[in-house]
Amino acid sequence: MHKIDIFDTTLRDGEQSAGINLNTAEKIEIARQLERFGATIIESGFPAASPGDFDAVQRIAGMVKNSIVTGLARSVKGDIDRAWEALKGAEQPHVHIFLATSPIHMEHKLMQTPDQVVENAIESVKYARKFFPLVQWSAEDASRSEPEFLVHIIQKVIEAGATTINIPDTVGYATPHEYGALFKYIKENVRGIEKVKLSAHCHNDLGMATANTLAAIENGATQIEGTINGIGERAGNVALEEIAVALHIRKQVYGVETDINLGEIKRTSQLVSQLTGSLIQPNKAVVGKNAFAHESGIHQDGMLKNPLTYEIITPELIGDASTELVLGKHSGKHAFKDRAIKMGFDLSDEKLKKAFVEFKKLADRKKQIVEDDLFVLLTDQQIQDKDTPVYELESVQVQYGTANIPTATASAKDPKGEIIHEAATGAGSVEAIFNTLERIVEGKVHILDYRVTSIGKGRDALGEAVINMSYNGETVTGRDVAQDVLEATAKAYLNAVNRQIIKEDQKIPSPVAAG
Ligand SMILES: CC(=O)SCCNC(=O)CCNC(=O)[C@H](O)C(C)(C)COP(=O)(O)OP(=O)(O)OC[C@H]1O[C@@H](n2cnc3c(N)ncnc32)[C@H](O)[C@@H]1OP(=O)(O)O
Ligand SMILES: CC(C)C(=O)C(=O)O
Ligand SMILES: [Mg+2]
To answer: Where in this chain does the record put each Pyruvate carboxyltransferase domain (predicted)?
Structure first.
C-alpha cells in the first residue's frame, strides 16, 4: 500500500468562500490544528494578495514544523518574490504557482497565446527554483484544457524544475470518468512524470468533487488537495475529511494510505466551522450533525441488534461522540424502550406501550423530542403505574382588567386528598396563578423558565405550557396542554411539582443524569 500526500488549502482556497475572512490569529489556530490533523502540506494563503495574508503565511511558515507550509503565487515575479519573503523561514520552503491553460482562460482572461503561456510558465518555474527547493505548478482549468497542450506545457515545466504538477478541475466541470482518464493520459504521455508528485484539485460545482478526487487516485494521483468541510470558492473544494475516511473505510478498493490522523477530524471540522462562521449542513458526510444519528424505527432496531447493520463509519473513528438514536415520529418501540431503560425507568410492558402511544402523538406535534419531553411522558406513566399521591387541579379562575390588579383563585386536591382553595394577586395573570399555586403546594418554588406555544393552527389551536422550576431545590420541568393557555399554565405548574414528588418517592433519576 503506498502513501499519498494531503495538501490542505482551507486557509487559501477555503478562505476564498464568499463571506469568509480569517484574521492572522484565526489562521494560526487553524494551521496548528491542521498540523495535528496530519496535513502533508498546508497552503496558508496568497502572500501577494494583502499585507494580512502575507503576515499570516510568514507566521505560519515560522511556526509549523510537521507539515510543509506553502503560499500561492501568480505566474509573475512580483508574486514569487513576495512568496519567498513570506516563506523563506519555513523548514522546507514550498511555493505554489498557477497559470491557466484552457482556451477560454488563455484568450479571455490572460489574453495570451498558448505559446506565451508556455514561455511564461517556464520562466516563472525557473525563477522560483532559484529560491524554493519545492515548486508546485498548477495548470488552472486543466479539465477544460486541450489534453495535448496540457501534456506539452507540463513537460516543459517539469524540465524547468517543477517538483509537483497539479491538474485542477477549477470549475468542477469534469466527470469522474473524464478526470481519471486525464490523469491516465498525462501519466502515459509526459516523460519523467513519475519523478514529480501528481496532484488532484477538485471543486464541487456539480457535486462530484469527492468522486473526481477518488478517480484521480485510482489513476495515479500521488497528492490530493482540498479543504476541511469542503469550504471554498462557489460550491467549494473537495472535503478532505470525506477523502480521508473513504480511503480508510474502502482501503481494499483504493489501496493507498495517508498520514491523516482520523481521530482529529471532528475537532478540526468544528474549529474551521466556528472560526469561519461557515455552518456545516446537518447531513454532510462524515462531519454533519446527523452523520451518526439514526431516526427511523427500523434502523434503530437494527442498530440496537448490531450497529454494523446501518453504520459503516463509527463516530469514534473521527473523534466524535457516540452514535445517536434520535427519537422522533419515525422511531419504533425497540428504540423507545432502550431509551426509557437508559433513563432509569422500569415500566411494565403495558405501561411502556401506553407511553409509546403518547410518545407517537407528541412526536406528530413536535419537530424535535428532547430528553425533558420523554421524561415528562415516562414519569406520567410511572405516576399511573405506582400510586404516589399528588396534587390535582380542580379549578382555576383569573380576574384581569387593565384597571384592576390581576387576581387568581384556584382549588386543588393535595396528596392527602383534601381540597385546598387559595387566591393571590400578581403583576399579570400568569404571576397571579403562580402565586396562588405556590400557596397550595407545600415547599419552595422558583420559576426558572416558562414558555407557551400553540399546537396546531387557527383560532382553536391548543396551548402548550412548559414550566421549568426549582422545587425544594431540585430542578424539574412540567408540561401540559389545554384549550386555554392559563389553564395549561396551572396544570403544567402542578405537573412539575408532582413530578418532583414522584421522583423523590420512587427514586426516579433526574433528566440531567439520564443517558
Ligand atoms: C483558481 C484560483 O483559485 S486562483 C486564485 C484566486 N485567488 C485570488 O484571486 C485571491 C487573491 N487575489 C488578489 O488579492 C488580487 O486578485 C491580486 C492581488 C492577486 C491581483 O490584484 P489586481 O492586480 O488588482 O488584479 P485583478 O485581481 O483585478 O486581476 C487579475 C490580474 O492577474 C492576471 N492573472 C490571473 N491569473 C494569473 C496568473 N496565474 N499569472 C499571471 N497573471 C495572472 C489577470 O489576467 C489580471 O491581469 P491584468 O490586470 O493584466 O488584466
Ligand atoms: C490555484 C488553483 C490551483 C486553484 O485553486 C484552482 O484551479 O482551483
Ligand atoms: Mg481551487
So the answer is: 4-266
**Is the Cβ atom of 233 under 6 angstroms away from ligand 2?**
no
Domain assignment present for 469: yes
Between the CA of 171 and the centroid of ligand 3 the distance, in Å, is 8
299 in a known ligand binding site = no
Task: Locate the ligand 1 atom nearest the alpha carbon of residue 100 and give its number.
Answer: 39
Q: What is the ipTM of this complex?
A: 0.98
Residue 282 forms part of a structural domain: no
Residues at Cβ < 5 Å from ligand 3 ion = 13
Residues 331, 217 within the same domain? no
**pTM: predicted TM-score of the whole model, two decimal places:** 0.81
Instruction: Quote the CA–CA distance of 306 and 113 in Å, as a whole number.
Output: 62
Count of domains for the chain: 3
Is residue 8 within 8 A of residue 30, CB to CB? The reply is no
Q: Locate cell 489501496: which residue?
A: 255
**Which residues form the domain of 72?**
2-276
* Span from the CA of 74 to the centroid of ligand 1 (angstroms): 7
Long-range contacts of residues 354-357, Cβ cutoff 8 Å, at least 24 apart: 354/381, 354/384, 355/380, 355/381
Looking at the structure, do residues 179 and 314 belong to the same domain, yes or no?
Answer: no
Atom of ligand 1 lying closest to residue 48 CA: 18
Residue 295 has what DSSP assignment?
-
360 shares a domain with 342:
yes
From 11, 72, 74, mutation site for ligand 1 pocket: most ligand atoms within 8 A of C-beta? 74
Query: Is residue 432 a contact partner of residue 422, using CB atoms and an 8 Å limit?
Result: no
User: Is 212 known as a binding-site position?
Assistant: no
Residues having CB within 6 Å of any atom of ligand 1: 13, 16, 46, 48-49, 74-76, 98-99, 109-110, 140, 170, 233
Q: What is the CA radius of gyration of the chain?
A: 32
How far is ligand 2, taken at its centre, from the CA of residue 233, in Å?
10
Residue 98 C-alpha cell reads as 498557477
The alpha carbon dihedral of 116, 122, 123, 128 has a sign of positive
CATH code, 470? 3.30.160.270
> pLDDT tens string for the chain (515 positions)?
899 999 999 999 999 999 999 999 999 999 999 999 999 999 999 999 999 999 999 999 999 999 999 999 999 999 999 999 999 999 999 999 999 999 999 999 999 999 999 999 999 999 999 999 999 999 999 999 999 999 999 999 999 999 999 999 999 999 999 999 999 999 999 999 999 999 999 999 999 999 999 999 999 999 999 999 999 999 999 999 999 999 999 999 999 999 999 999 999 999 999 999 999 999 999 999 999 999 899 999 999 999 999 999 999 999 987 788 889 889 999 999 999 888 878 888 988 898 899 889 888 877 677 777 787 778 777 666 556 778 999 999 999 998 999 999 999 999 999 999 999 999 999 999 999 999 999 889 999 999 998 766 667 667 889 899 999 999 988 888 888 999 999 999 998 998 888 878 766 555 543 33
